[in-house]
Design brief:
Layout: H1 20-29, H2 36-47, H3 51-62, E1 76-77, E2 82-83, E3 88-89, E4 122-123, H4 128-136, H5 140-145, H6 147-164, H7 177-184, H8 187-199, E5 201-204, E6 210-213, E7 240-241, E8 247-250, E9 253-258, E10 260-261, E11 273-278, H9 283-290, E12 300-302, E13 309-311, E14 318-319, H10 325-328, E15 331-336, H11 349-366, E16 375-377, H12 402-408, E17 423-426, E18 456-458, E19 492-494, E20 498-505, E21 508-513, E22 516-521, E23 529-531, E24 534-539, E25 545-546, E26 575-576, E27 581-593, E28 603-615, E29 620-624, E30 628-633
Parallel strand pairs: 7-13, 11-15, 11-16, 12-15
Antiparallel strand pairs: 1-2, 3-4, 5-6, 8-9, 10-14, 12-13, 17-20, 17-23, 18-19, 20-21, 21-22, 24-27, 24-30, 25-26, 27-28, 28-29
Length: 634
């Protein structure tokens, strides 16, 4: 939550003749609530907050989950996301020192880690958890770990904000709009709360509690979140303009500039992708970095606590964010405040919703398909050549909830063919799909991560649970051996990705993955993948193997004399006869040449060489259309 700390006044009027702390104590002494639904009912009655409103605010913060008492990426706890402002959050550089975020082999590698002094750890922000402790008499530990105490604390805060605003304690949720905006950090949050009130919601929480909010279709809200005039955002999202600098860094060197390239998209090039990142640093640090000329820039940053959006680059300009120049030049980069390896940390519903609203808008404006081959994670972007595979980034990682995200994008992921189809889409149940990753604790990298649901599945060399993981000779050049590290996606397939089926044995399914059969347990009672219709590519008859590429660049003949030819470098993987890979797109080769601060020398080279995008492993890759034949599967 993002708000100013309120004046804490405990008044008898909050509950007839009772102070807030006294009321909370009497409720706690009355007995233990048996269900989460009852807790909301009792807390709403205690603090005279409309029950539906309390449910809707909590849904937008946490979807009613307890999250095992662990903090969100913005140090919020419990169903009401009470933030502990005494906590500090560690930082990591976005670039990590290995990946060249620009990914343009025609220029020197961009490794900005040394160019920016390491930001200091940031405080979590507003301290609503300790405010709630003072209001209710509950301990800070109870508010962190006990969902019932947490819900009462959130209700007490809402009641206090309503009093501070001199608003009536009405049963009509509409009269609480300003208090909700204060609780969540602004008008956009409040508007989303009222959207939830209109549609209703029902789900089973991460600790097995069934909670339902009945729809109130006719409810109205007041107020709107205005976008800054310079931003490109859907109406009402409340986007802020925080521009990234375009500067020449050395007066005598026109090739030394930062931290992005000016362009004229989509007139100059079609925008094909939106890339989802996490920041690996607190939101204020991310904004400091994107404003640094010697660093790198992306298009948007979204704050975890309340879903606030800052835009840094116009969509027409090219950010240096994905580690692959071909993808950079045809994508929009969206950073989300968060940390890949903090398995116990969680994103708020507010962040997911604001991100989905933004991506829906951008996809509609630029014609980007709403599927997992075009809404990519940074971890799905291919390396530009064999030497750059190992250093590519892994965010947002296995804890990003792609299934929920696509539901919010109004493109829910579902089966489109029978269970025996020749193509499958990975679709585990996020909440129950608990994979035993390691590496969440930097001080003990071999220790297990906290148990947590996730959107990825592990792939094995044989149809048995104790079989070795499949190999990735790009990520692990020495022996290909994959690990269970949360940072290692070598043997993982992610929600929404589509693969050609290679084999089936009993309850096990094999897919073609990085040139090999990759097995996963897929019983009817707990499906990890569903059948889909699609198209697969296989090598043309007579070819033993075909090359795959990390960039879809033009043929040499297409380059004008003043633009250096970009060599097509086949990857180290094998796409052999007899194998098949899901085709996820088609395009002709293009290359955006931009090397100097003065944009007069820019060129977009367009060729006649046609490529198909395929789901080859965890990342997408490209094959020449002339090397393969396509086959529909149902």
């Amino acid at each position: 939550m993002r708000m100013r700390a309120p004046t804490l006044v405990v008044a008898a009027a909050v509950l007839t003749a009772l102070g807030i702390s006294q009321a909370d104590a009497r409720q706690r002494d009355a007995g233990t609530e048996s269900t989460r639904q009852q807790v909301f009912t009792q807390a709403a009655g205690t603090y005279r907050v409309p029950q539906k409103l309390l449910l809707a605010v909590s849904y937008l913060e946490s979807r009613w989950d307890a999250n095992r008492g662990l903090p969100s990426t913005s140090a919020g706890f419990g169903p009401m996301h009470l933030t502990d402002g005494t906590l500090s959050r560690g930082v990591e550089h976005l670039a990590g020192g290995k990946e060249d975020p620009r990914g343009d082999l025609s220029r020197s590698p961009l490794l900005p880690k040394g160019a920016v002094s390491t930001p200091k750890a940031a405080k979590a922000g507003p301290d609503t958890l300790h405010q709630a402790a003072r209001l209710t008499g509950a301990t800070a530990d109870a508010l962190r770990s006990d969902p019932a105490a947490n819900i009462r604390g959130g209700a007490a805060l809402l009641a206090q904000y309503q009093r501070d605003l001199h608003k009536p304690f009405s049963a009509d949720p509409s009269s609480w709009y300003a208090a909700v905006a204060r609780y969540g950090g602004g008008n956009w949050f409040a508007g989303q709360v009222f959207d939830v009130l209109r549609t209703g919601a029902s789900r089973t929480t991460d600790d097995g509690q069934r909670v339902t909010l009945a729809a109130t279709p006719g409810i109205r809200s007041t107020g709107a979140a205005d976008n800054d005039e310079q931003t490109e955002c859907p109406p009402g999202l409340g986007c802020e303009w925080v521009p990234a600098p375009y500067q020449q860094l050395k007066p005598d060197d026109p090739t030394s500039y930062g931290n992005h390239d000016l362009a004229d998209r989509p007139k100059s090039q079609k925008i094909d992708y939106i890339v989802v990142h996490d920041t690996e640093t607190p939101y204020p640090n991310a904004l400091d970095l994107v404003k640094t000329p010697t660093y790198l820039a992306w298009n948007y940053t979204i704050r975890s606590g309340d879903g606030h959006v800052a835009q840094h680059l116009k969509a027409k300009d090219v950010g240096w964010h994905a580690g692959n120049w071909d993808v950079n030049s045809k994508s929009i980069g969206v950073e989300h405040e968060g940390y890949l390896a903090q398995g116990g940390a969680w994103y708020t519903e507010a962040m997911y919703r604001s991100s989905a609203a933004l991506v829906r808008y951008l996809a509609g404006r630029f014609g980007v398909p709403l599927d997992r081959a075009h809404i990519l994670g940074h971890d799905n972007v291919p390396g530009v050549d064999p030497a750059h595979v190992q250093g590519m980034h892994e965010d947002p990682g296995p804890y990003w909830d792609w299934a929920h995200y696509f539901t919010l994008l109004n493109r829910p992921l579902r089966a489109s063919a029978g269970a025996r189809s020749g193509e499958v889409m990975i679709l585990p149940d996020y909440g129950t799909n608990v994979v035993p990753y390691t590496g969440c604790d930097a001080a003990a990298p071999s220790a297990p991560c906290p148990p947590h649901g996730g959107g990825s599945i592990m792939l094995r060399t044989e149809p048995r649970d104790d079989a070795p993981l499949v190999k990735d000779i790009g990520k692990h050049p020495s022996d290909g051996a994959a690990t269970m590290s949360v940072y290692d996606h070598s043997a993982r397939a992610s929600t929404g990705q589509k693969y050609a089926v290679a084999d089936r044995q009993g309850e096990w399914t094999a897919i073609w993955y990085l040139g090999q059969k990759a097995w996963f347990h897929n019983p009817e009672s707990r499906r990890l993948a569903v059948g889909v219709r699609g198209v697969v590519a296989t090598p043309k008859p007579g070819l033993e193997s075909v090359p795959i590429y990390g960039r879809a660049y033009p043929e040499a003949e297409a380059y004008p004399s003043d633009v250096p030819v970009q060599q097509l470098a086949p990857m180290q993987y094998t796409f052999a006869a007899g194998q098949a890979y899901a085709v996820t797109g088609a395009r002709y080769g293009e290359y955006f040449y931009s090397k100097t601060y003065d944009t007069a020398s820019q060129r977009v080279v367009r060729g006649k060489l046609k490529y198909y995008e395929i789901q080859f492993g965890h990342r997408v890759y490209f094959v020449k259309a002339s090397d393969v034949v396509l086959k529909p599967v149902r």
